[in-house]
Amino acid sequence: MLRIYNSLSKKKEEFIPNDPNHIKFYACGPTVYNKIHIGNARAFISADLLAKILKGIYSKVTYVCNITDIDDKIIDAAKEENLSIKDISTKYFNQYQEDTALLGISKPDIQPFATDYIDDMIAYIEKLIASDNAYEKDSNVLFRVSSFPNYGCLSDRKLDEHESGSRVKVEDFKESPNDFTLWKPSLDDDPGWDSPWGRGRPGWHLECSVMSESTLDIPFDIHSGGNDLKFPHHDNEIAQTCAYHGNEDPTSFAKYWVHNGFLNLEDEKMSKSLGNVIYIDQLLKKYKGNEVRLALLSTHYRQPIPWSEELLDQSHNIYVKLQNAFKKYGEIEEKFHADSKIAEILMDDLNTPLAIRTMQDLVSEPNENIKNEIATFKYIFEGSNQDLSLSDEQVNEINELVKERDDARNSGDYDRADKIRDKLSKMNVSIKDVNGKTEWEIL
RNA sequence: GGCUGAGUGGCAGAGUGGUUAUGCAGCGGACUGCAACUCCGUUAACAUCGGUUCGAUUCCGUUCUCAGCCUCCA
Question: What ipTM describes this predicted complex?
Fold first, then answer.
């Protein structure tokens, strides 16, 4: 039985699917305007974790993760890099695919692109206007928040309490400061599509309402995203979709809402302005994909992760230790065994830290079910497609040096032996003398 | 100000109404030409103040602190 914390009820709940024969899960994906960083990766890995567990339990699961390929940030990036919008979004989409695969994140079943749904979005807006839930002003179309009484139900925000902390400048085309954009005009050199309100482009929140419903139909089971998306993004999605269908109940859209926590660097939020952004492609030059994955899963998904070198080194140690322990059992196929201890722990609101701890316990005191435990562990915590193999040439070079060192040791020339060991360690090769034999591995 | 979450040993992080994980680091030892690896042993914690209780780190309440959101953001 899967239990999951539902942001809508603010409680850990038993997961009861709308249809156990077909589980539907939608996660908010990337805006492809830059390389993904470690914080983005955490969100994608959390969604991947949940998708993997769902797929382990249920026979049919459709996991959708959208790609935002039209957005002001993309327009800015295109100007900066002097590329077309399409080139920018393609470039960073490809990088996203590559980086996530290296972290063992499986491809979603469906990856809808926002720009493929512009016509649907326009039709959606027309209906919202017709039902008086939206209005046009100066070529902008805005959602009229006051028309949806349950607005803010996810984040528990009340509209009239909003003023005190508000720092946002209210554009004069808005009836109310909380109204949000469904459609906005594009300047001549900005990308745009023809619409009843002139040439323009969709607001950000709209795409998820349109694409989730188009790909999964509503109600679907789970909607996930980063904690920061709760408000306004997800509350806006709920308002749009519910208003569109004339239904006030947010569960008529998605039943469970799942949000992951952030990642802190030295007690600071990672941000471009602080210059402390860690990109995945850089990180993977030093650590293996599975190690980074383990590090990201070593904290419960709802808690903030204090990210540090130390955490990565620790994850490296645990990873190596477990790999060595697993070797004893030969090849084990990655597979989710729902009756294993590891699975049971994960099904309690995705308790990955406890699962990691338990796996360590289990290998130190194996039980007869250990192979299923390992299979389940590998299914969740491994799966990076990173190619760690060396060329034949490199392997030969290392073997030769190792042999030279052994010869030196056998003849008592320890100075020379140690020099060779230093040389190997500079090549990131670590030496172990085990039972008279010399083993080596790449760090 | 509002909403949400959290405060456990040097660090990370589970868990529990009484026997107080685990990993890393530290310390001691075995092994080693020296290391590394491995193994054995070991130090050390439960934010604050009250309450309930025979007994609370664990339950209830107070206080304090921290983080995120309330503005694009994973």
Answer: 0.87
